[in-house]
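Hey, can you fold this one?
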Amino acid sequence: MSAPTPVAIVTGASRGIGYAIAEELARRGHRLALLARSTGPLEEAARRLAGAAPAVRAFPCDVRQAEQVAATFRQLLDWGGRADVLVNNAGIGGFGPLHELSEAVWNDTLDTNLRGAFLCSKAVAPQMIRQRSGYIINISSLAGKNAFAGAAAYCASKWGLLGLTKCMAEDLRGYGIRVTAICPGSVQTEFSPHAGKDPARMLQPEDVARAVGWLIEQDARSFPSEIDLRPTQKP
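Sure. Predicted structure:
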């Protein structure tokens, strides 16, 4: 009996790092469940990936909303029948000096970057536990280790994501589920233009995607806890 075609779930999949990760997983033969908040760009991404993967489906979802996440994951698990990889990539940048930072920006940044990863992981974990296998990959940032001015909300969210990753790994490893954080430095995307930096020297989305591909190649008996990814030249 042949092995079932694996299913990969990617949040924030409509563009940038998320789209590049979806492309990488498609090349590796995964069926793709693509999640993002904006329906139009998400459906366009699914159309562009349709010829590259065994199957692709768009699932519009706001990862900040617990009920919406739960309903979406029920639908995608019914569609896919299993869950082999979850990449928690959805993220936003909320920046500004602490004394000027609005509560709305703080909440939106933490809810998207940290709470969203928690909700999606919690929704997929029971299926992976039943399978006794699965890989959850959280896209964090070097900003989760290195503070800089004007980034209280963003750094707090990514610092928290690293802590969540390590705890999830301990909670789930006994079921054969692996959990890793990838911490990129500056990546050239529409999301983060990085004014004043040389785009040619920055990481590209496909660099992060290749790290995801490398992780899922590892034998199931081991997993890296964390990958720091830096450009060779400082931008």
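The chain has six helices and seven strands. Let me know if you want another pass with a different chain boundary.
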